[in-house]
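User: Please predict the structure of the protein below. I'd like the answer in structure-token form so I can feed it into my own downstream comparison script.

Assistant: Understood. Taking the following sequence of 207 residues as input:
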Amino acid sequence: MKPWLFDILACPIDKYFPLKLYIFSFENKPQEFQSIITLYSNRDINFIKNENIIEISQEDNELFLKDNIIIEKTRLKSYLDLITSSLIEFENVFDNTTNKLSKKCFEIINSDVKSRIIEFAKNPNFNQIDRILPELYFINKLKLDFEISSGILFCSKCKRWYPIIDTIPQMLPDKYRDQKKEINFLENNKNLLDEKFFNQDLKPFKI
């Protein structure tokens, strides 16, 4: 499951959004996380522009942007509103892996990246867009280039949990769920979740 998918997933039972995402493992190797951390730290604007992930155009003195998250050409202010909303969703993402570099990526997102984009959005200036290109690049890379191998999507309204198994979110109605398989999944990963999670009235199964 790509992290961008989390932006649009709602609970299939009560349609609640946003869900919470607990990540247990990634398909990606640690050096792939290190690569985007290094690129972000270097802030090489020419390299980022040459990657063509963030497309910038100007029409009648207005700046338009699009990327792999906001796929339609969008006016700067509206684009920043959408990106900020996408960033806020990271508040519901919990990296419970043992990967220190992936954790570092989420720390960067929730601190430097978020604060820089929110600050820029207060007074957007198309002549200074280069100031946040590393942040926009970092968001796109993290959301689109990485694959969650296993984890849990959780609805805090109805207390249903949905496993992510072999990169696929298993979001079926209760009657179609495999109780034995999913309880086994929860047992095998219980060390990656805290006691508070298990003390809830989990549905449709709990251990």
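That's the full token string. Residues 106 and 129 are 23 Å apart (CA to CA).
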